[in-house]
Each structure stands twice: as C-alpha cells, then as structure tokens.
Amino acid sequence: MKSRIASTTALMVTLVVCLTPPAASLPTRLKMTTTATMREETTPSTKAEGVIMNGTMARIGFSEEAWVYCRAQVPTDHHLHHYQVKWVTATGKMVSPWSRHNAGPQVYTLGGGPHIPHSYLVFDPFVPSHASHYSCILVFNGTPVHQSTIRVDQS
C-alpha cells in the first residue's frame, strides 16, 4: 500500500471586527486570529483514475462527427489542478489538440488542460482509418498514474 505524502503550509488569517458600542462610549475593536491549513499534494491519490464515460467500446457511423469523453475521478481531498487528462493512440502517439489549420478528416482533443481534468476525443468526421484503440491517460504533475482504454469501430 502506498503512503500519501503531503506538505503543509500554515496560513494566518487576521479578522478585525468592529462592534458598535453604546453611544456614550468610544468604538471598541475585537481582534480574532485563526489558522487555516492549506495542503499541497506531492503524490497522487491511489484512488484517482481516468474514467471513459462511453464505456470500453464505441461504434461510430462512417462520416459521422462523434466524440468520446474522459474525466478524472479524484477523491475530494485532492486538488484537481495537479491532474490532467490526455489521449493516446494504440501506438502510444499523443492525440493532438484541435487546430483550425488541420484539413480533412481528423481525430483531435478538446479540453485536458490543468484545473479541468477532462477531455474529449473528437472524430471530425469518422473514417475507417480512425477505427482503433484509444487510451485516456490520467496524469499527476506530469506523471501518468492511470489509463483507461476504449475500442472505437465503424458501425
């Protein structure tokens, strides 16, 4: 079983509350101090995974525009900004993000950046050469930590 290591940073917060005194006295100030703990994750959660919401197989019609969706499933006590979702082909090649400069049938990704760990694998439009296995890789601070795979075929 892996242990979870986290560094801790203490943040001091000072609140100044002004109380309204009776008219005969001068204003009184009450100073309260509290300490909040901010955690910065240094290792991924052992429960984190990339989940392909379409299942493990998808059938897409010829020339249809379609997408497959993958999102990070991370315990609520972990900061999402450490995680990213990336798509790779069966040969291990990273699927590129959308570009307006690409012409013709293409496969590309939308999303997948930091702070929003989810991504769409888009077929625009689907052609027989796009049929393959694709993997959604969950990445923690640049290191792959989980992989889910889907088989995409022509219907």
Automatic annotation (TrEMBL):
* UniProt organism field: Petrolisthes manimaculis
Keywords linked to the UniProt accession: Signal
**What name does this protein carry?**
Ig-like domain-containing protein
Renumbered to this chain, the signal peptide range is: 1-25
Key word Signal present: yes
